Amino acid sequence: MEYIRYRIPDAARRAEFMDAYAQAAKQLELAPQSLGYELAHGVEEPERYILRIEWTSVEEHEQGFRRGPHFPPFLAAIRPYIGDIEEMKHYRRTTVTSAAGGEA
Fold this sequence. Notes:
Helix content is 35%, strand content 27%. The protein has 104 residues and is of the alpha+beta class. It is globular and about 35 Å long.
């Protein structure tokens, strides 16, 4: 899984950010390397967003998606927000998980 943390202080840019990710998400839907994604918005800190993308593998993300036809339009949509990224890392699941799969 890849987690990307954004901090977008300006409220007007937040609306634009959501629109940009709605466009970018279309490319994630089409990419065979993407198994799913979720964009969460901070409640206590509304300037914060976390994007979680589940990839088939780190290698398929970095070599397949980034070198494939869906990456250029994905990047074009989110390019204005690259400077707002605080963290962009891959993580593995652990055995510590809920039976409900994290539903709240």
